[in-house]
Structure formats: C-alpha cells, structure tokens
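hey
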C-alpha cells in the first residue's frame, strides 16, 4: 500500500512543476486524495459492499470535487491535475500513467445496465481540461485529447484528438503502434505541434491554389510573348490573367498559419 502511495506521489512530482515536496503533495493535492479514496471505494464495490463504496465515493466527491464511480478501474500513477469537476463513469478504465485535467468527463452514451458504457484509456494518455470522452471505446496508449474536445469514437495509439466532434491527428511518421509504446514525452493539455487537421487541409488548399495561379500567370505571359511575334496571330484575350492576384498570405493568416 505504501509503495503504491509513494509511486502516486512521485508521478505528481514528475509531472507538476508546481509541486515542491512530498509533504505538499500528500497534504495539498486533491487529485492524490481522490485516487486514495477511490481505491478504498473500489475495494468495497468489488467485495459486495456496494453502498459503502458509493458512500466513500460520495465523500471523495465532496472533499475533492472529483467524482469517480467506485466501479471504475484505475491503474498505477494516475494523476488528476487540479481536476475540479472531473466525472469518471462506472465502467471506465484508466490505464497506468494517465493524466486527467479539470472538467473532464469519461461518460457513457448508453442506458443499458451491465454494458460497457464508458471509455477505456490506455497507458500514458493525457485528457486535457474540459474534454468529454463519451462511449465504450478505447483511447490508445500515448494518445492525447485536446482541451474541450468531444471524443465519440476510438483514438489510435499515439494520436491526438481535437475539436467538436473530435478529429484525429495521427503521428507524422504514421506510426500508431510501437511508437506509442516507447517512453512518451509528457504533453500538458494535449498540445501538439501538428495543429488542427482542418486547418492543415485548408493551408494545403491555399498553397495549391496559389501555385496553380502562378502557373496560369506564367502560361499567359508565355502566350503573350508568342502573340507578339508578327507571324503569330494575336489571340490573347484582353482579360487574360497575366499577373497573380490570389492573396495566399492573407488566407493563410485567417486559418492560423
């Protein structure tokens, strides 16, 4: 029990630069208190003391602002950072090394009792502030859920989900399996350098349109030179686009380039 508690404290010291000492974490971190209370509640729940498990869970919610159903399963080194307003459903499973921020909901979309209604988080998953993960699917190892995202479908290992509804950003190298199993670099709030996938698509279209206009302008300039030859009839329309007028930079700024 004490070795598990030491592991929980150390994971907070490793991931939160504001944590200065073991005593501070032990006495002032509601995320740690919620995890410790949940383990007692989960033991009661799995050993037939359902009411007592729910009562301990209720007390934990009142003390910490974090509501974890006693039936939920938590792995090792799970860190609820700040975490006020977090809700974890009955059939949710949270893997080792996960980090969950404030306002997160691991909820269900089904009313059938006994069914797998809530999500399963793999190892080292980061669920950012305000995110909602809804349904009985799996979020793969090393995945990140962006702030305020609404995730309603599975997330591959190592990927990032952003937006409403969430869109999936895969790792640049396309690796979704073994890469996620390596030691991950911690990314607070699910920040990713790849950016929003819709924005990336828009920037690609803008670059393509700009390139096409440049090529068209060059073609018209070449045709104009040929038409200037006395042996070639003048067939260039007066409204031909000999110069570029597509404001690629302006559109790129609008989509956040």
């Amino acid at each position: 029990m004490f070795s598990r508690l030491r592991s929980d404290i150390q994971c907070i010291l490793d991931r939160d630069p504001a944590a200065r000492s073991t005593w501070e974490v032990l006495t002032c971190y509601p995320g740690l208190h919620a995890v410790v209370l949940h383990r007692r509640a989960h033991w009661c729940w799995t050993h037939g003391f359902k009411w007592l498990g729910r009562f301990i869970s209720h007390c934990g919610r009142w003390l910490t602002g974090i509501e974890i159903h006693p039936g939920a399963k938590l792995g090792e080194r799970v860190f609820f950072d700040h975490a006020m307003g977090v809700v974890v459903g009955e059939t949710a499973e949270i893997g080792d090394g996960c980090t969950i921020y404030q306002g997160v909901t691991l909820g269900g979309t089904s009313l059938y009792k006994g069914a797998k209604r809530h999500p399963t988080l793999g190892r080292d998953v980061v669920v950012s502030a305000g995110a909602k993960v809804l349904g009985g699917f799996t979020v793969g190892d090393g995945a990140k859920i962006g702030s305020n995202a609404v995730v309603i479908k599975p997330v591959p290992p190592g990927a990032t989900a952003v937006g409403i509804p969430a869109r999936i950003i895969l790792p640049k190298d396309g690796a979704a399996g073994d890469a996620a199993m390596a030691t991950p670099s911690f990314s607070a709030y699910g920040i990713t350098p790849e950016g929003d996938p819709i924005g990336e698509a828009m920037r690609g279209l803008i670059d393509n349109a700009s390139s096409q206009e440049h090529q068209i302008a060059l073609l018209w300039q070449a045709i104009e030179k040929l038409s200037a030859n006395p042996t070639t009839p003048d067939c260039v329309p007066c409204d031909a686009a000999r110069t570029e007028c597509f404001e690629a930079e302006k559109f790129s700024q609008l989509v956040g380039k």
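The longest strand covers residues 105-107. The chain has seven helices and 15 strands.
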